[in-house]
Write a structure and sequence with these properties.
globular
């Protein structure tokens, strides 16, 4: 009898029988380097007044003696909560490698690859052209129980083209587009979107507004799948404002902490939700002036990272496969299938799709 009970306990605890997530959050931070995520602030940029106008304030905010202390100061939610409850990939100092597979190393090709699981060379600019590829969001929106419950909120207006809002029927709130007439919090957010400064132009909404608009939507509409895409991190980097770039990443880390707490307070989401966080591309790192840039002329800006936590994601922490010159590499085109698999779905399309990341989905 004891052996039968033991077998049943073992069987029920098997990852093969783990329940899929019922809800999913995908978050992207545009152009955030793995070097800063895993080792914290870069002293060569933080202490240079060319990139940090107030170096004393920057030191106080972001500097510490060790990489572990610096990264926790920089992104406390990522390192005190997600790292302890989920998984992180991309710290190349520990042999964990993740790359884009598209040949361009900039934004729209990266977002297409994240969403469609396919590095399509037809997408080779940041022009706002509707994505010809079916994305995992569109695929999920077509599945029973998900129709009309998939939404995207983005700071950059090209994201609504990347999800092909017109064809897919997914609700997409992007940049500074006019909001429908509303009352209460929606009205306030609409007024702020209309009236606040737009330092990066009409095509980019402040990340703060993107977050709070998405949060209000969650409270009112209860989507099952949400894509939340931030942009100011890349704009500040291109402007050469390293300290401000770090501040924006840190603000987004606080948004994600707030979002996770909100989800755990709502019965639909608590204990039933997975979250993945990643970036569309990396940046330059040496010489330091290349930090502002990315693309094929900027070495190593194909290097990215991934974080995951929540239902269906094993608690394995930071990936440490060890220093291997030709060790295993994860790719951006694997994210789409991984998202679907966390919901118990198999993403298929009329184009090739990268395989899911087994360790994230609990298969290895």
């Amino acid at each position: 009898m004891r052996s039968i009970l033991f077998f049943l306990t073992l069987l029920l605890s098997s990852p093969l029988l783990a329940q899929p997530a019922e809800n999913l959050i995908l978050v992207t931070l545009d152009g955030v380097r793995w070097q800063d995520v895993f080792t914290g602030a870069d002293s060569s940029l933080l202490f240079d007044p060319v990139y940090s106008r107030d170096t004393a304030a920057a030191r106080k905010a972001f500097w510490a003696n060790t990489p572990a202390e610096r990264r926790e100061r920089f992104m406390p939610f990522l390192w005190t909560t997600l790292a302890k409850q989920g998984q992180l990939y991309g710290n190349r100092k520990l042999g964990s490698k993740m790359n884009v597979s598209n040949p361009h190393w900039f934004s729209y090709p990266g977002y297409n690859e994240i969403l469609s699981g396919y590095a399509d060379d037809r997408i080779k600019s940041n022009d706002k052209i509707d994505n010809p590829n079916v994305t995992v969001l569109e695929f999920i929106n077509q599945q029973p129980g998900f129709t009309g419950k998939v939404a995207a909120f983005s700071s950059w207006d090209v994201i609504e083209a990347a999800v092909n809002e017109k064809r897919s029927g997914i609700y997409a709130s992007s940049a500074n587009e006019a909001s429908r007439p509303a009352t209460g919090p929606d009205s306030l957010l609409a007024d702020m979107t209309r009236l606040l400064p737009r330092p990066f132009g009409d095509g980019v909404r402040a990340d703060m507004l993107t977050y709070f608009t998405a949060r209000q939507y969650i409270r009112e509409k209860r989507p099952r799948v949400l894509f939340l895409s931030f942009d100011e991190t890349d704009d500040l980097a291109h402007a050469g404002q390293y300290a401000e770039h770090l501040q924006m990443v840190q603000s987004i880390d606080r948004y994600l902490s707030d979002l996770w707490q909100l989800l755990q307070s709502m019965p639909q989401y608590a204990g039933k939700t997975a979250m993945l966080i990643t970036t569309d591309h990396g940046r330059g790192h040496t010489p330091k002036a290349r930090w502002k840039d990315h693309g094929t002329k900027t070495a190593d800006s194909y290097q990215i990272w991934l974080a995951a936590m929540g239902t269906g994601v094993a608690t394995t922490g930071e990936s440490t496969p060890g220093e291997q010159k030709n060790g295993p590499v994860l790719y951006q085109n694997q994210i789409a299938a991984t998202l679907a698999k966390l919901l118990g779905l198999t993403f298929t399309a009329d184009h090739p799709v990268g395989a899911p990341i087994d360790r994230v989905t609990g298969d290895k």
